[in-house]
Amino acid sequence: MAHYSFPTESDFRRQHQKLEGRIIRTPIQQWRTPLKNRLLSKDTEVFWKLELFQKSGSFKYRGALSVIDQMSTKEKQAGVVAGTGGNHGIAVALAAKNAGVDAKIIVPQAMNLFRRKAIDRIGAEMVVVDCISQILDEMHRVAEQEGRTVMHPFESPAITLGAGTLGLEFLDQVPSLDVVIVPIGGGGLASGVACAIKEANSNCEVYGVEPVGANSMQLSIEQGRAIVLHPPPKSIADSLCSPKAESYSFAVCQKYLDGVVLVEEQEIVQAMRILFEEGKLAVEPAGAAATAALLGPLRERCIGRRVGVVVCGSNIDVETFFGFLPFSCEK
């Protein structure tokens, strides 16, 4: 297995300073309602980190900017290429446009139309492939053919570094957190948040959460190596449907996460409804995954503690959002 060096707290703080003024310092919302007390307990403190309000509608903008910051002038002139299920493509398109860099975005045919239109409005060129499992191969093919810099959706030290700025912000905004829960797609967000938080406060527990049908990181940690999912991942949380884990982000998650838990589709939908009714937040399924874990597999572990929950994205259209919400919050 390869041996990697991981970012320190100082590294994350320096990157956060570089991003200052170009990203939004996203707000915190504390969940304080009778329903929270019934579902958890009165003395459980829950803080939502509202990264859905980040530029581009998700945390991905932090990593995209961080990659561009590390590119040479020559690389910027050649442009970038990104493979995406949606949010990464929107973030790369926007970050590249703001930096004056040409971007080509590889997307799957089944990608949510709202996200495709968002990329199109920004002005990036899109290449459509048949399914999500093909996007990374096509991304590398285009990079080699056209000399573009790869903007991998999760596998890059720069992506981890950028995502980790969210973790530092969270600790600065809510001191003395006992637990932080973060969604996992490929592991870019989870690797950054877990590393940054553990480097700053080793006593804070950090848990990743995946849908049951897209559990590449859970299986990778179980098997001690980055694995490919067979059959390909499937979940309503399409932003979390990475077809495989990759070595660097896996290594960071393996070292810094206290565990990975899985949530069912109905638990994700229930959490979407809770965020909407309790927090007045309209989020995509991936944005509700951490809340689903809090109310499901991590509930007992979090009772009576100060819990930070990352609400990572909101790139979803109205029709799709309300089509997911047949369940009641009441238990």
Give Rg in angstroms.
18 Å
Helix content: 40-55%
Q: Report strand %.
A: 15-25%
The CATH topology of the largest domain: Rossmann fold
The biggest beta sheet reads: 6 strands, mixed
CATH architecture of the largest domain: 3-Layer(aba) Sandwich
Compute the number of helices.
15
Main structural class? alpha/beta
Number of domains: 2
| Lateral arrangement of strands in the main beta sheet | 1-2-10-7-8-9
CATH hierarchy class name of the largest domain: Alpha Beta
Quaternary arrangement of the chains shown? Answer: single chain
Sequence stretches where pLDDT stays below 50 over 5 or more residues? none
Listing every helix as H and every strand as E from the N terminus to the C terminus, the arrangement reads HEHEHHEHEHEHEHEHEHHEHHHEH
Number of beta-strand segments:
10
From the spread of the alpha carbons, the general shape counts as globular
Distance between the termini: 46 Å
Give the rounded overall mean pLDDT: 93
